[in-house]
Amino acid sequence: MPKSILPCELGNLNWPEIESSAFQTFISDYCISSSNRTVSRGYLNGLETLIEKAGPWSSIAKSCKVISLANLGKKAASPMLLQKAETLYFDLLPSFRWTISNEDKSTTIHSLITAVLLGLYEIITSTSTELGSHVAHARGVSAILTNKYSPFDLVCGGQLFQLPNPLSLKDLDIGHLENISTPTLKASEKFSIVCMPLVNSPWATLDPIFLKTISLIRKAEKLLGDETEATSIDDLQLLKQEAELLRTDYQKCVINLSKEWRSSLIGIIPSNSDSTRHEVGYWPGPVLGYYDLYVACVINSYHKSQLRVLNVIVRCHWAIIHLPQDAEIDPFIWEEARNLTLDIVASIPYYLAENVQVFLDQALASDMTSKAMVPGPSVGGLLLMHTLYMVSKLSVVDPVLKVYLKDCLAWIGRNMGIGQATMLSEHSSINLSDYVTQAHVLIWAGMLL
Q1: CA–CA distance, 326 with 395 (Å, rounded to integer)
Q2: What is the per-residue pLDDT for 13?
């Protein structure tokens, strides 16, 4: 919801009016409805219905009020609303702990989505001095989704939501696990958070290849991350071979995408040779569109994972033959990495612009001035920012593109009111991969509704 239509004089409204406005702003800003669940899961799809059924005094309704007020406070630059949201948040935490420990008053689905919403509150209001505020909620979500009492029978046992340092449900004080009332939303058969339809593929979903990538990255962090420990050449060779096989798997999956999941060319941003640093949205080249933001998010996550695999191959190569990190190797890897990165860059206007066609029209205007892009719903920035950050940290990505990606993160923070995006754009010297992985669990769990 554009800031221009928010209440200008919030102090003149009573709290029921403010809360109603905040809730509708949040729904417009952070929810994506899906008309075809076989193609797209949307984002927080069905949240309004869930809240209506739970009632206004439920933990999930209260947590939605917290995040709604915080979102509106960010949009309207209102310290009053942000303070009110913070007060309600800390008032809710003891109540939430009681709710999830009382088997007669809660269901796992309500506990899960409440934890997701409270985690999103921490992501939106994140600051550089409070880097890990969302971690407890992320670990709680991970514990619920990877436990046998999870309300969703996920492919691969929900391992896409597994964190290196998970909580057990006993740590969440949920009480007697055997007696937890599971909701009517319990899936009757296994399904994937990544509902990408693959044609003539050995995989029914992308979960297995994503899990193989997570395993590879963890091995790489262990072997390549500690420069003080000697790593055997044999171990590096095996890791490099595993990455090369996974690279081939990714290439096969791209070929088998269904038509609903293929990108479409919306337009082309002209090159401005006089510019040394491009404004956000104005990177020269194609602009790609997708079925919706959920599809765009999964495709970009796919490209990001491919880039991380390529990064492992390159780093192993450097370590094995002791090349300096700026040495040229296998030109096909660098070309593939650049193409994948540019595909992500080409999707940025689709994520961030209020109206991507209007934005393209102004980009093609005869005066050739780069007018600022009008921001669209904040969910676009939410679903994009972690991909931008992770790609900006990879050795296989062009340094000039890295600068552009960080500029995009700063833009999301300023224009979409997401504090974590601002924080990620500012911390260039610190590796926040674990921090981002935990936040990513929260964001992807919002696709389960």
Answers
A1: 9
A2: 62
